[in-house]
Backbone:
Protein backbone atom coordinates (compact mmCIF):
# COMPACT_ATOMS: atom_id res chain seq x y z
CA UNK A 1 0.00 0.00 0.00
CA UNK A 2 1.38 3.42 -0.92
CA UNK A 3 1.55 6.30 1.53
CA UNK A 4 -0.98 8.25 -0.50
CA UNK A 5 -3.39 5.34 -0.52
CA UNK A 6 -3.03 4.81 3.22
CA UNK A 7 -3.71 8.40 4.13
CA UNK A 8 -6.29 9.34 1.50
CA UNK A 9 -9.84 9.96 2.82
CA UNK A 10 -12.39 7.30 1.96
CA UNK A 11 -14.77 8.23 -0.85
CA UNK A 12 -18.23 9.50 -0.04
CA UNK A 13 -20.95 6.94 0.53
CA UNK A 14 -22.18 5.72 -2.89
CA UNK A 15 -25.09 7.37 -4.59
CA UNK A 16 -28.32 5.50 -4.06
CA UNK A 17 -28.65 5.33 -7.85
CA UNK A 18 -25.13 4.06 -8.63
CA UNK A 19 -25.98 0.45 -9.49
CA UNK A 20 -29.11 -1.14 -10.97
CA UNK A 21 -30.53 -4.14 -9.18
CA UNK A 22 -33.78 -5.98 -9.92
CA UNK A 23 -36.58 -6.77 -7.55
CA UNK A 24 -36.58 -10.31 -6.26
CA UNK A 25 -37.81 -12.42 -3.40
CA UNK A 26 -35.38 -10.99 -0.83
CA UNK A 27 -36.92 -10.71 2.65
CA UNK A 28 -39.04 -7.65 3.22
CA UNK A 29 -39.16 -5.62 6.39
CA UNK A 30 -38.03 -2.35 7.83
CA UNK A 31 -35.14 -4.13 9.57
CA UNK A 32 -33.88 -5.37 6.19
CA UNK A 33 -34.21 -1.88 4.72
CA UNK A 34 -32.31 -0.42 7.67
CA UNK A 35 -29.56 -3.05 7.28
CA UNK A 36 -29.16 -2.08 3.61
CA UNK A 37 -29.02 1.57 4.54
CA UNK A 38 -26.22 1.08 7.06
CA UNK A 39 -24.38 -1.20 4.61
CA UNK A 40 -24.33 1.52 1.96
CA UNK A 41 -27.68 0.95 0.21
CA UNK A 42 -26.30 0.55 -3.32
CA UNK A 43 -29.66 -0.47 -4.80
CA UNK A 44 -31.32 2.13 -7.05
CA UNK A 45 -33.31 4.81 -5.35
CA UNK A 46 -34.92 8.06 -6.30
CA UNK A 47 -35.91 11.19 -4.44
CA UNK A 48 -39.50 11.85 -5.38
CA UNK A 49 -39.09 15.61 -5.90
CA UNK A 50 -36.38 15.00 -8.51
CA UNK A 51 -33.30 16.00 -6.54
CA UNK A 52 -30.20 13.83 -6.63
CA UNK A 53 -29.31 12.08 -3.39
CA UNK A 54 -25.91 11.10 -2.08
CA UNK A 55 -25.24 9.62 1.36
CA UNK A 56 -22.06 10.84 3.01
CA UNK A 57 -22.65 9.20 6.40
CA UNK A 58 -25.64 6.94 7.20
CA UNK A 59 -25.81 7.91 10.87
CA UNK A 60 -26.00 5.42 13.70
CA UNK A 61 -28.85 3.08 14.67
CA UNK A 62 -31.16 4.63 17.23
CA UNK A 63 -32.70 2.12 19.65
CA UNK A 64 -35.94 2.90 21.39
CA UNK A 65 -38.47 5.57 20.51
CA UNK A 66 -37.59 7.97 17.73
CA UNK A 67 -36.08 7.90 14.23
CA UNK A 68 -34.27 4.79 13.04
CA UNK A 69 -30.93 6.51 12.32
CA UNK A 70 -29.49 9.57 14.00
CA UNK A 71 -26.89 12.11 12.91
CA UNK A 72 -26.83 11.16 9.23
CA UNK A 73 -25.20 13.39 6.59
CA UNK A 74 -26.73 13.43 3.09
CA UNK A 75 -26.55 15.68 0.03
CA UNK A 76 -29.57 16.71 -2.03
CA UNK A 77 -28.46 18.27 -5.31
CA UNK A 78 -25.14 18.93 -3.60
CA UNK A 79 -26.65 20.74 -0.61
CA UNK A 80 -25.62 19.16 2.71
CA UNK A 81 -28.26 18.11 5.23
CA UNK A 82 -27.60 16.72 8.69
CA UNK A 83 -30.21 15.03 10.82
CA UNK A 84 -32.15 11.80 11.32
CA UNK A 85 -33.48 9.17 8.91
CA UNK A 86 -36.68 7.14 9.19
CA UNK A 87 -37.46 3.87 7.34
CA UNK A 88 -40.84 2.44 6.32
CA UNK A 89 -41.94 -0.18 3.84
CA UNK A 90 -44.60 2.24 2.60
CA UNK A 91 -44.59 6.03 2.73
CA UNK A 92 -48.01 5.98 4.42
CA UNK A 93 -46.37 4.44 7.49
CA UNK A 94 -45.18 7.92 8.50
CA UNK A 95 -48.68 9.14 9.29
CA UNK A 96 -50.00 5.72 10.30
CA UNK A 97 -47.41 5.64 13.11
CA UNK A 98 -48.13 9.24 14.14
CA UNK A 99 -44.65 10.53 13.30
CA UNK A 100 -46.08 13.63 11.60
CA UNK A 101 -47.11 15.10 14.95
CA UNK A 102 -44.33 13.64 17.14
CA UNK A 103 -41.60 16.17 18.16
CA UNK A 104 -39.10 13.31 18.35
CA UNK A 105 -39.18 13.19 14.53
CA UNK A 106 -38.67 16.92 13.99
CA UNK A 107 -34.98 16.40 13.03
CA UNK A 108 -35.70 13.85 10.28
CA UNK A 109 -34.18 14.98 6.96
CA UNK A 110 -34.81 11.85 4.89
CA UNK A 111 -37.67 9.32 4.75
CA UNK A 112 -36.55 6.09 3.03
CA UNK A 113 -39.27 3.69 1.83
CA UNK A 114 -39.70 0.75 -0.51
CA UNK A 115 -43.03 1.96 -1.87
CA UNK A 116 -44.47 5.45 -2.26
CA UNK A 117 -48.06 4.27 -1.94
CA UNK A 118 -49.48 7.80 -1.72
CA UNK A 119 -47.60 9.33 -4.63
CA UNK A 120 -46.41 12.31 -2.54
CA UNK A 121 -43.33 14.31 -3.53
CA UNK A 122 -42.23 14.76 0.10
CA UNK A 123 -43.04 13.65 3.64
CA UNK A 124 -44.57 16.32 5.88
CA UNK A 125 -44.14 16.99 9.58
CA UNK A 126 -46.69 19.09 11.46
CA UNK A 127 -43.83 21.38 12.48
CA UNK A 128 -44.04 22.75 8.94
CA UNK A 129 -41.08 20.91 7.41
CA UNK A 130 -41.09 19.03 4.11
CA UNK A 131 -38.83 15.97 4.41
CA UNK A 132 -37.13 14.41 1.38
CA UNK A 133 -38.77 11.12 0.39
CA UNK A 134 -36.54 8.44 -1.19
CA UNK A 135 -37.69 5.14 -2.69
CA UNK A 136 -35.21 2.27 -2.40
CA UNK A 137 -36.21 -1.03 -4.08
CA UNK A 138 -34.82 -4.28 -2.71
CA UNK A 139 -31.59 -5.58 -4.27
CA UNK A 140 -31.14 -9.03 -5.78
CA UNK A 141 -28.54 -10.01 -3.18
CA UNK A 142 -27.78 -8.63 0.29
CA UNK A 143 -25.19 -5.83 0.17
CA UNK A 144 -21.79 -6.40 1.79
CA UNK A 145 -21.33 -5.09 5.30
CA UNK A 146 -19.82 -1.63 5.39
CA UNK A 147 -16.43 -1.28 7.03
CA UNK A 148 -14.96 2.21 7.43
CA UNK A 149 -11.19 2.86 7.17
CA UNK A 150 -10.87 3.14 10.96
CA UNK A 151 -11.83 -0.56 11.31
CA UNK A 152 -8.96 -1.72 9.10
CA UNK A 153 -6.56 0.58 10.92
CA UNK A 154 -7.73 -0.74 14.32
CA UNK A 155 -6.75 -4.25 13.24
CA UNK A 156 -3.23 -3.01 12.51
CA UNK A 157 -2.81 -1.06 15.74
CA UNK A 158 -5.16 -0.65 18.74
CA UNK A 159 -6.70 2.84 18.80
CA UNK A 160 -6.35 3.22 22.59
CA UNK A 161 -3.83 6.08 22.57
CA UNK A 162 -5.72 8.06 19.93
CA UNK A 163 -9.04 7.62 21.73
CA UNK A 164 -7.53 8.71 25.06
CA UNK A 165 -6.01 11.77 23.41
CA UNK A 166 -9.42 12.72 21.97
CA UNK A 167 -11.00 12.10 25.39
CA UNK A 168 -8.51 14.46 27.05
CA UNK A 169 -9.30 17.09 24.43
CA UNK A 170 -12.99 16.78 25.28
CA UNK A 171 -12.29 17.07 29.02
CA UNK A 172 -10.14 20.18 28.52
CA UNK A 173 -12.85 21.72 26.37
CA UNK A 174 -15.40 21.19 29.15
CA UNK A 175 -12.95 22.54 31.75
CA UNK A 176 -12.43 25.67 29.65
CA UNK A 177 -16.17 26.26 29.59
CA UNK A 178 -16.33 25.72 33.38
CA UNK A 179 -13.40 28.08 33.98
CA UNK A 180 -15.17 31.09 32.46
CA UNK A 181 -18.36 30.17 34.25
CA UNK A 182 -16.64 29.70 37.63
CA UNK A 183 -14.91 33.08 37.34
CA UNK A 184 -18.32 34.73 37.37
CA UNK A 185 -20.31 32.48 39.71
CA UNK A 186 -17.88 30.33 41.68
CA UNK A 187 -17.08 26.62 41.31
CA UNK A 188 -19.97 25.21 43.35
CA UNK A 189 -22.76 26.69 41.19
CA UNK A 190 -20.91 25.42 38.12
CA UNK A 191 -20.80 21.93 39.60
CA UNK A 192 -24.53 22.08 40.34
CA UNK A 193 -25.36 23.24 36.79
CA UNK A 194 -23.15 20.60 35.15
CA UNK A 195 -24.66 17.91 37.38
CA UNK A 196 -28.13 18.96 36.21
CA UNK A 197 -27.10 18.81 32.54
CA UNK A 198 -25.54 15.38 33.05
CA UNK A 199 -28.55 13.92 34.84
CA UNK A 200 -30.84 15.35 32.15
CA UNK A 201 -29.26 13.05 29.59
CA UNK A 202 -29.67 13.39 25.85
CA UNK A 203 -33.41 13.96 25.90
CA UNK A 204 -33.68 16.45 28.77
CA UNK A 205 -30.28 18.16 28.83
CA UNK A 206 -31.54 21.51 27.55
CA UNK A 207 -34.50 21.53 29.94
CA UNK A 208 -32.30 20.67 32.92
CA UNK A 209 -29.85 23.40 31.92
CA UNK A 210 -32.81 25.79 32.01
CA UNK A 211 -33.59 24.62 35.57
CA UNK A 212 -30.04 25.56 36.60
CA UNK A 213 -30.56 29.04 35.15
CA UNK A 214 -33.94 29.44 36.84
CA UNK A 215 -32.73 28.13 40.18
CA UNK A 216 -28.95 28.45 40.65
CA UNK A 217 -27.34 26.69 43.58
CA UNK A 218 -27.41 29.59 46.11
CA UNK A 219 -31.12 30.11 45.50
CA UNK A 220 -31.80 26.37 45.69
CA UNK A 221 -30.01 25.95 49.02
CA UNK A 222 -31.93 28.88 50.51
CA UNK A 223 -35.16 26.90 49.94
CA UNK A 224 -34.24 24.25 52.52
CA UNK A 225 -33.06 24.47 56.13
CA UNK A 226 -29.54 23.40 57.00
CA UNK A 227 -28.86 19.73 57.65
CA UNK A 228 -29.62 17.53 59.46
CA UNK A 229 -33.20 18.79 59.61
CA UNK A 230 -35.63 16.09 58.47
CA UNK A 231 -37.24 16.68 55.13
CA UNK A 232 -34.43 18.74 53.63
CA UNK A 233 -34.08 16.47 50.60
CA UNK A 234 -37.80 16.70 49.90
CA UNK A 235 -37.70 20.49 50.24
CA UNK A 236 -34.88 20.63 47.68
CA UNK A 237 -36.78 18.28 45.38
CA UNK A 238 -39.92 20.42 45.64
CA UNK A 239 -37.92 23.52 44.71
CA UNK A 240 -36.42 21.74 41.69
CA UNK A 241 -39.84 20.51 40.56
CA UNK A 242 -41.19 24.04 40.81
CA UNK A 243 -38.29 25.34 38.70
CA UNK A 244 -39.01 22.66 36.10
CA UNK A 245 -42.66 23.63 35.72
CA UNK A 246 -43.59 24.43 32.14
CA UNK A 247 -40.35 23.08 30.63
CA UNK A 248 -40.55 20.49 27.81
CA UNK A 249 -39.49 17.39 29.75
CA UNK A 250 -39.52 14.06 27.93
CA UNK A 251 -40.02 10.48 29.14
CA UNK A 252 -40.02 8.84 25.72
CA UNK A 253 -37.61 5.97 25.39
CA UNK A 254 -36.38 6.32 28.98
CA UNK A 255 -36.38 3.66 31.66
CA UNK A 256 -38.35 4.71 34.78
CA UNK A 257 -35.19 5.43 36.80
CA UNK A 258 -34.20 8.02 34.18
CA UNK A 259 -37.56 9.85 34.14
CA UNK A 260 -36.98 13.57 34.74
CA UNK A 261 -38.84 13.68 38.05
CA UNK A 262 -36.73 10.78 39.33
CA UNK A 263 -33.56 12.53 38.23
CA UNK A 264 -34.59 15.70 40.07
CA UNK A 265 -35.23 13.69 43.23
CA UNK A 266 -31.76 12.14 42.90
CA UNK A 267 -30.19 15.57 42.46
CA UNK A 268 -31.97 16.81 45.57
CA UNK A 269 -30.48 13.92 47.55
CA UNK A 270 -27.06 14.71 46.10
CA UNK A 271 -27.32 18.39 46.99
CA UNK A 272 -28.32 17.50 50.54
CA UNK A 273 -25.19 15.35 50.84
CA UNK A 274 -22.72 17.72 49.16
CA UNK A 275 -23.97 20.92 50.84
CA UNK A 276 -25.16 19.86 54.32
CA UNK A 277 -24.84 23.33 55.85
CA UNK A 278 -26.49 25.11 52.87
CA UNK A 279 -23.38 27.14 52.02
CA UNK A 280 -22.77 27.18 48.21
CA UNK A 281 -19.06 26.34 48.41
CA UNK A 282 -17.01 23.52 46.90
CA UNK A 283 -18.05 20.36 48.79
CA UNK A 284 -15.63 18.91 51.32
CA UNK A 285 -16.68 15.46 50.11
CA UNK A 286 -15.01 16.26 46.77
CA UNK A 287 -11.72 17.54 48.14
CA UNK A 288 -10.03 14.31 47.04
CA UNK A 289 -10.34 13.39 43.32
CA UNK A 290 -10.22 9.68 44.10
CA UNK A 291 -13.24 9.95 46.41
CA UNK A 292 -15.57 11.55 43.85
CA UNK A 293 -17.40 8.46 42.50
CA UNK A 294 -18.14 7.22 46.03
CA UNK A 295 -19.20 10.66 47.30
CA UNK A 296 -21.77 10.95 44.52
CA UNK A 297 -23.61 7.74 45.35
CA UNK A 298 -27.03 8.59 46.76
CA UNK A 299 -30.53 7.13 46.25
CA UNK A 300 -31.26 7.40 42.54
CA UNK A 301 -27.58 7.71 41.55
CA UNK A 302 -25.90 4.34 41.18
CA UNK A 303 -22.36 3.45 40.22
CA UNK A 304 -22.77 4.22 36.50
CA UNK A 305 -24.48 7.58 37.08
CA UNK A 306 -21.84 8.52 39.67
CA UNK A 307 -19.12 7.90 37.07
CA UNK A 308 -21.07 9.99 34.53
CA UNK A 309 -21.23 12.84 37.04
CA UNK A 310 -17.53 12.51 37.85
CA UNK A 311 -16.52 12.73 34.19
CA UNK A 312 -19.01 15.35 33.00
CA UNK A 313 -19.49 17.57 36.07
CA UNK A 314 -16.94 17.11 38.87
CA UNK A 315 -13.77 16.84 36.80
CA UNK A 316 -14.55 19.77 34.45
CA UNK A 317 -15.62 22.02 37.36
CA UNK A 318 -12.60 21.13 39.52
CA UNK A 319 -10.15 21.55 36.63
CA UNK A 320 -11.77 24.74 35.39
CA UNK A 321 -11.68 26.33 38.84
CA UNK A 322 -8.16 24.96 39.48
CA UNK A 323 -9.28 23.22 42.68
CA UNK A 324 -7.40 20.02 41.92
CA UNK A 325 -3.84 19.67 40.56
CA UNK A 326 -4.21 19.16 36.82
CA UNK A 327 -1.85 16.17 36.70
CA UNK A 328 -3.71 14.41 39.49
CA UNK A 329 -7.13 15.08 37.96
CA UNK A 330 -6.04 13.87 34.52
CA UNK A 331 -4.46 10.75 36.01
CA UNK A 332 -7.73 10.05 37.79
CA UNK A 333 -9.64 10.59 34.54
CA UNK A 334 -7.41 8.08 32.75
CA UNK A 335 -7.95 5.49 35.48
CA UNK A 336 -11.76 5.68 35.57
CA UNK A 337 -13.76 2.85 34.00
CA UNK A 338 -16.40 3.76 31.46
CA UNK A 339 -19.79 4.33 33.14
CA UNK A 340 -21.92 2.53 30.54
CA UNK A 341 -22.18 1.78 26.83
CA UNK A 342 -23.64 4.56 24.66
CA UNK A 343 -26.04 3.48 21.92
CA UNK A 344 -24.74 6.07 19.48
CA UNK A 345 -21.26 4.53 19.73
CA UNK A 346 -22.34 0.91 19.23
CA UNK A 347 -21.38 0.76 15.51
CA UNK A 348 -18.06 2.49 16.22
CA UNK A 349 -17.35 0.05 19.06
CA UNK A 350 -17.92 -2.86 16.65
CA UNK A 351 -15.59 -1.35 14.05
CA UNK A 352 -12.80 -0.52 16.48
CA UNK A 353 -13.08 -3.63 18.64
CA UNK A 354 -12.19 -7.16 17.73
CA UNK A 355 -12.14 -10.54 19.37
CA UNK A 356 -14.57 -9.35 22.02
CA UNK A 357 -12.37 -6.37 22.90
CA UNK A 358 -14.18 -3.24 24.10
CA UNK A 359 -12.40 -0.12 22.80
CA UNK A 360 -14.43 2.07 25.19
CA UNK A 361 -13.77 0.22 28.44
CA UNK A 362 -12.14 3.30 30.01
CA UNK A 363 -13.89 6.62 30.58
CA UNK A 364 -11.20 8.55 28.67
CA UNK A 365 -11.60 6.30 25.61
CA UNK A 366 -15.39 6.59 25.78
CA UNK A 367 -15.13 10.38 25.85
CA UNK A 368 -12.75 10.13 22.90
CA UNK A 369 -15.30 8.05 21.03
CA UNK A 370 -17.96 10.70 21.64
CA UNK A 371 -15.65 13.41 20.33
CA UNK A 372 -14.79 11.29 17.28
CA UNK A 373 -18.48 10.73 16.56
CA UNK A 374 -19.43 14.39 17.01
CA UNK A 375 -16.49 15.86 15.09
CA UNK A 376 -16.16 13.32 12.27
CA UNK A 377 -18.69 10.48 12.00
CA UNK A 378 -21.77 12.72 12.27
CA UNK A 379 -20.28 15.37 9.98
CA UNK A 380 -19.59 13.24 6.95
CA UNK A 381 -15.90 12.89 7.85
CA UNK A 382 -15.69 9.11 7.50
CA UNK A 383 -12.19 8.26 6.33
CA UNK A 384 -10.69 11.59 7.35
CA UNK A 385 -10.68 11.16 11.14
CA UNK A 386 -7.55 10.63 13.29
CA UNK A 387 -8.28 6.89 13.52
CA UNK A 388 -8.43 6.37 9.73
CA UNK A 389 -4.72 6.89 9.03
CA UNK A 390 -2.70 3.85 10.17
CA UNK A 391 0.86 4.21 11.47
CA UNK A 392 3.25 4.25 8.47
CA UNK A 393 5.04 1.05 9.48
CA UNK A 394 1.71 -0.75 9.82
CA UNK A 395 1.29 -0.49 6.05
CA UNK A 396 4.91 -1.20 5.25
CA UNK A 397 5.75 2.45 4.61
CA UNK A 398 9.38 3.31 5.36
CA UNK A 399 10.14 6.30 7.51
CA UNK A 400 11.80 9.22 5.82
CA UNK A 401 15.48 8.45 5.63
CA UNK A 402 14.85 4.93 6.99
CA UNK A 403 14.66 1.51 5.42
Residues:
Amino acid sequence: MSAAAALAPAPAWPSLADEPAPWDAAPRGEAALAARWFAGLRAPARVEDGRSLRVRFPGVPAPGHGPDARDAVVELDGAELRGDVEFHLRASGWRAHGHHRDPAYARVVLHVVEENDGGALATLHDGGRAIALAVAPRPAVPPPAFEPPCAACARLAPPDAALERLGLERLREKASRARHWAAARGPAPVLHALALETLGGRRNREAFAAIARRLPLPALLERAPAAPAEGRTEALAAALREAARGLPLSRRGLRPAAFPERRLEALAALCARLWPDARPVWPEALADPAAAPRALRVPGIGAAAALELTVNAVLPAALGARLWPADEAIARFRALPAPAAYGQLRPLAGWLGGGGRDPFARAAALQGGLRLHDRHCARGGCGACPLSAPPPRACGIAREGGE
About this structure: The first strand starts at residue 46 and ends at 47. The CA atoms of residues 156 and 394 lie 6 Å apart. Residues 151-361 form one domain.
